[in-house]
UniProtKB/TrEMBL annotation:
Protein's name in the database: Guanine nucleotide binding protein, beta polypeptide 2-like 1
UniProt xrefs under SUPFAM superfamilies: WD40 repeat-like
Species of origin: Mustela putorius furo
PANTHER family: RECEPTOR FOR ACTIVATED PROTEIN KINASE C RACK1
Record InterPro entries: RACK1-like, WD40/YVTN_repeat-like_dom_sf, WD40_repeat_dom_sf
Listed GO MF terms: ribosome binding; translation regulator activity
Domain of life: Eukaryota
Database matches in Gene3D superfamilies: YVTN repeat-like/Quinoprotein amine dehydrogenase
Coiled coil: none
Lineage: Eukaryota, Metazoa, Chordata, Craniata, Vertebrata
Length: 80
């Protein structure tokens, strides 16, 4: 079984639970808030402070990244 853990330094660690050993590390780039495997376990989604990165675990490369965007809405008092 494959397991992933993340830390406040932005490092995601991949583990082989059957063998009880560390496999490799991925650089998330910022504090890791959440990790999620794709159903086939070939990709890992890493949520950091400003972004979400999707890693291809076979190639150990980022295949997609989404940045945080802000929407500013301004309204005068009493109107929308």
């Amino acid at each position: 079984s494959l397991c992933a853990s993340g830390d406040k330094n932005g490092q995601a660690m991949l583990w082989d639970l059957n063998e009880g050993k560390h496999l490799y590390m991925l650089d998330g780039g910022d504090i890791i808030n959440a990790l999620c495997f794709s159903p086939n376990q070939y990709c890992l989604c890493i949520a950091t402070g400003p972004s979400i990165k999707i890693w291809d675990l076979e190639g150990k490369i980022i295949v997609d990244e989404r940045q945080e965007h802000y929407l500013v809405v301004r309204s005068e008092v009493g109107s929308y």
